[in-house]
UniProtKB/TrEMBL annotation:
Annotated Gene3D superfamilies: Domain of unknown function DUF1476
InterPro entries: ATPase_inh_sub_z, ATPase_inh_sub_z_sf
Protein's name according to its UniProt entry: DUF1476 domain-containing protein
UniProt organism field: Sphingobium phenoxybenzoativorans
One Pfam family from the record: ATPaseInh_sub_z
Length: 107
């Protein structure tokens, strides 16, 4: 092994670690978004838990956040909640900051 090989392996390990952290933060953010939307729709605790899981699952449909935004806007509108896309995007940004903070705080 050369120093170059060691550095390359270290960079690959760091990249994998960073990707895992980002995945966890995004999943946490989506759960928080689901809980935020569930409160607006007046769901019970059991329904809130199931809905939050459905929002996390919705993120796997396509790359990026558009699938989650579409789901939230559609579900909130169907439930009679007066909400628009910019409101959901603002909530997404707010929940991203909260999720990142929760993940980075020592337990």
């Amino acid at each position: 092994m050369t120093t170059f090989d060691d550095r390359e392996r270290a960079f690959e390990n760091q990249f994998a670690h960073d990707q895992e952290i980002q995945f966890r933060i995004t999943a946490r953010r989506n759960r928080l978004l689901g809980e935020w939307a569930a409160v607006k729709m007046g769901l019970t605790a059991e329904e809130t838990d199931a809905y939050a899981k459905a929002v996390v699952q919705a993120d796997f449909e396509e790359a990026g956040d558009e699938d989650v935004i579409r789901k939230l806007v559609g579900d909130l509108t169907s439930a009679g909640v007066d909400v628009d896309e910019p409101t959901v995007r603002a909530a997404l940004e707010e929940q991203t900051a909260i999720a990142r903070r929760q993940f980075m705080e020592p337990k």
